[in-house]
Amino acid sequence: MNLTDKVAVITGGAGGIGSALARRFAAEGASAVVVADLDADAARAVADGIGPVGHAAALDVADSEQVRALVDETERRYGRIDLFCANAGVATGQGIEAPDADWDRAWRVNVLAHVYAARAALPAMLRRGQGHLLLTCSAAGVLTAVGDAPYTATKHAAVGFAEWLAVTYRDQGILVSALCPQGVDTPMLADGLAVGHLAARVIAASGAVLTPDQVADATIAGLAEERFLILPHPEVADYARRRAEDPDGWQAGLRKLIRRLRA
């Protein structure tokens, strides 16, 4: 996809990867960039910052009716949606002890929000025979987020859903991409480090933390090449191969890393 004159919607757009995507889409010549976020004021600041193509919207991605209303309003205002970026996500930093409420929130934001986006955006895309869905799934969706069981489980589900969408709708003109970065310098990582979450410490120890702008660069390249898996950290592909070829050895390496960090 070339972003010139395209209409894009970004959820979780008020900061981190979402705001970097908004800036980059505007720079690439998008005709409209809808920045949607639970934090309406922050979304408005990002939209204002990218100029006249920016438009802000308050949105709880875990509410299917709000997602549908956002899609309807965007289509009414701009005539179409060329690219829907389901980017919002949450981490917990917890294991099986995470309360049911935290598991439910992770499920609704990290998985069901993608379902709601596809339900709302696909009908018009299918009528036009074109459109692109970009789901931010995380490298945790193809590997493991050590120290965060809800995040790992839901991101794996997100990648699985993205692949299902790609297989089901590609022949009808719909492109689907799963954006799977590893460590990114975002408030989510900073908050995890501040409270000592093991998952955040593993990412920091890897020494491969990218800026949101670097992730946006990789996203533009992946969209242009119509790739399903967009991996801003190319080493994730090697990790995934090693994990598939030798799951026991891969797990042994992770356990060793955990022991070192806990010591």
Automatic annotation (TrEMBL):
The keyword Oxidoreductase applies. Belongs to the short-chain dehydrogenases/reductases (SDR) family. GO terms for molecular function: oxidoreductase activity. This is NADP-dependent 3-hydroxy acid dehydrogenase YdfG. Pfam families: adh_short (PF00106). Residues 6-190 form the Ketoreductase domain. Keywords: Oxidoreductase. The keyword RNA-binding does not apply. It comes from the Bacteria. Gene3D superfamilies: NAD(P)-binding Rossmann-like Domain. InterPro entries: KR_dom (IPR057326), NAD(P)-bd_dom_sf (IPR036291), Sc_DH/Rdtase_CS (IPR020904), SDR_fam (IPR002347).
